[in-house]
Amino acid sequence: xxxxxxxxxxxxxxxxxxxxxxxxxxxxxxxxxxxxxxxxxxxxxxxxxxxxxxxxxxxxxxxxxxxxxxxxxxxxxxxxxxxxxxxxxxxxxxxxxxxxxxxxxxxxxxxxxxxxxxxxxxxxxxxxxxxxxxxxxxxxxxxxxxxxxxxxxxxxxxxxxxxxxxxxxxxxxxxxxxxxxxxxxxxxxxxxxxxxxxxxxxxxxxxxxxxxxxxxxxxxxxxxxxxxxxxxxxxxxxxxxxxxxxxxxxxxxxxxxxxxxxxxxxxxxxxxxxxxxxxxxxxxxxxxxxxxxxxxxxxxxxxxxxxxxxxxxxxxxxxxxxxxxxxxxxx
Length: 331
Ligand code: PMP
Description:
54% of the residues are buried. The protein is globular, with a radius of gyration of 19 Å. The model has no long low-confidence stretch (mean pLDDT 98). Helix 7 (187-199) links the parallel strand 7 (178-181) and strand 8. It has helices at 19-25, 43-56, 73-85, 99-107, 126-140, 155-171, 187-199, 215-221, 242-245, 257-271, 277-293, 311-314, 317-322, and strands at residues 15-17, 28-33, 65-69, 88-94, 111-115, 145-147, 178-181, 204-210, 251-255, 298-303. The protein is α/β, with parallel strands linked by helices. The strands form two sheets. The chain has a six-stranded mixed sheet with strand order 1-2-10-7-8-9, sandwiched between helices. 4'-deoxy-4'-aminopyridoxal-5'-phosphate binds at residues 41-43, 71, 73, 182-188, 234-235, 276, 278, 304-305.
């Protein structure tokens, strides 16, 4: 197989059977191996769709700037594509995110700006600050800069409609009963869900929401109420983004780290899969769903990225103890 550049490696990821999840539910549960994207996460797809859209609209030219607020993965995807295409990336990230993602961004040459974690309504919030910064860059470059705006730019969900969703439909040959995943921007669940619902409206689209996010209550009762907290990164939201608003969601589960993180450890030891924290929420959700609708159903979820990105949290015995999460015996 020959590829012309790294960008051509984005997408077309395989589905992997999740053996433990399938066996305890009597369902066939598959995970889409998004960690195989060149930037190591599902967010390469959103980054590419956003940049392609900006190019189509003539909003960026050679040496231009891409500015974004991100939990890290979108920044990594944007920086990889920016480097391959001759753009610069300016990445704003809350300082609460793992050192692993910050170090990776720095090593890729991103102009990384860390800001204190603040609620969305605060002007210092990382997303709001990235917009302010983008406006400054647009001014000083005479328009050769863009704000990627992954949360409210629906090029994100359209990217998943045209790639992730279509791939899942093809790979399952349409034999799929339900799709479940968590939401950060909502791009994945909205884009994949749209393809599946257009094919067959009976395919269930379910949200797996971490504690501390308001989306579970939003789906259940239209109220944006947050309860609890989670060590997961890149998922959950306090508001309905433009991408999430595009999603047709049948039901939601609120997933506790105490159920999600032990699954990550189980998959490391028994299936050789070293998955990141949001994948734990997704798989815990898929198991809950399989027990409810199974046996014999086909369920697909997303394996967003790898554990490497969260080593300092996932394999931190003190933190696990503090959160009352069982410590794997090999740590
Ligand atoms: N998992 C991880 C690790 C992520 O970084 C993100 C995006 N921030 C998601 C899941 C959620 O994907 P989306 O933004 O498409 O909802």
